């Protein structure tokens, strides 16, 4: 069942007064939530009873996700902006607490690629990946500290979690992605440190390292999808993915399950690590790859 179908199925049960689900009554921030994995996380978390802060660079698209959630009886609102911008993290946390009064979960999902061979990668292109994939999650987590590092027994007992999204590129490296791989590796170190420092406050922190998930980052580069950052358009996608004569199994012979993963499947992995189903898991990196790389 897709995240949207799940949301529709339980929509009649979702309300601020009597939420039901794995995240019933919790407040969850999801960055990069207007499309792809982030959108699926926002829909699924709402379906499981969370009040969702839908954050994205494109507030218009983010509002459409909020509208979907509200139409099914869930609760959500938008905080737009660039996660790398000065003051973004402070604004995100302040608006969340002002609206809902607490923060139980953060999914640091916002990100993109800016691929070049290492010897042609300029400083700005390298630094940009560090800013969006490492510095931005760090700043958001740091701003949330006063609301998540509570010493009150009742607050410590609550399910509180942080998910930092990584990639198999961060685990194994990848041709043309020295910047992206370095950043996605760095966020794993951030995760482990947060797990050690914030564990005594009942906060779990884990990483999800995705393999081939069907998003705009893994579609054919020839389709011309771009993201605009600081007035500059950055092309997205992978060259040569446009060969439609091949079956999934032919395109991905190194994936035992024989196909790419869907954003909905990716979101389910995040939900598992966010929910109480993983209450004794922290500092872990969950590989979501269909078996690729084993």
From TrEMBL:
Annotated segments matching region Disordered: 237-261
InterPro entries the record matches: KR_dom (IPR057326), NAD(P)-bd_dom_sf (IPR036291), Sc_DH/Rdtase_CS (IPR020904), SDR_fam (IPR002347)
SUPFAM superfamilies listed in its UniProt record: NAD(P)-binding Rossmann-fold domains
Top-rank lineage group of the source organism: Eukaryota
GO molecular function, one term: oxidoreductase activity, acting on the CH-OH group of donors, NAD or NADP as acceptor
Keyword field contains Oxidoreductase: yes
GO BP, sorted A to Z: fatty acid biosynthetic process
Domain Ketoreductase residue range list: 26-201
Record flagged with keyword Oxidoreductase: yes
Keywords annotated in UniProt: NADP, Oxidoreductase
Family to which this protein belongs: Belongs to the short-chain dehydrogenases/reductases (SDR) family.
UniProt protein name: Ketoreductase domain-containing protein
């Amino acid at each position: 069942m897709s995240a949207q179908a799940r949301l529709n199925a339980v929509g009649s049960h979702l309300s601020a007064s009597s939420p039901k689900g794995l995240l019933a009554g919790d407040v969850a921030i999801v960055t990069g939530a207007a499309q792809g994995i982030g959108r699926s996380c926002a829909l699924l978390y709402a379906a499981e009873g969370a009040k969702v802060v839908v954050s994205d660079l494109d507030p218009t698209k983010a509002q459409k996700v909020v509208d979907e959630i509200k139409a099914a009886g869930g609760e959500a609102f938008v905080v737009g902006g660039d996660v790398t911008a000065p003051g973004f993290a402070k604004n995100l946390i302040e608006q969340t607490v002002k609206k809902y009064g607490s923060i139980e979960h953060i999914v640091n999902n916002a990100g993109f690629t800016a691929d070049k061979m290492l010897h042609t990668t300029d400083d700005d292109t390298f630094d940009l990946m560090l800013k969006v994939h490492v510095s931005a999650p760090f700043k958001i987590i740091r701003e949330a500290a006063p609301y998540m590092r509570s010493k009150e027994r009742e607050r410590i007992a609550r399910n509180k979690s942080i998910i930092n999204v990584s990639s198999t590129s961060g685990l194994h490296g990848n041709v043309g992605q020295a910047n992206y791989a370095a950043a996605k590796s760095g966020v794993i170190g951030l995760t482990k440190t947060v797990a050690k420092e914030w564990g005594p406050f009942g906060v779990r922190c884990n990483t999800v390292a995705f393999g081939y998930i069907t998003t705009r980052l893994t579609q054919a580069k020839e389709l011309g999808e771009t993201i605009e950052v600081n007035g500059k358009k950055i092309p997205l996608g992978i060259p040569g993915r446009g060969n439609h004569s091949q079956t999934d199994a032919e395109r991905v012979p190194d994936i035992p399950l024989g196909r790419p993963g869907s954003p909905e499947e990716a979101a389910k992995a995040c939900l598992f690590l966010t929910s109480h189903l993983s209450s004794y898991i922290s500092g872990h990196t969950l590989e979501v790859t269909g078996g690729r790389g084993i």
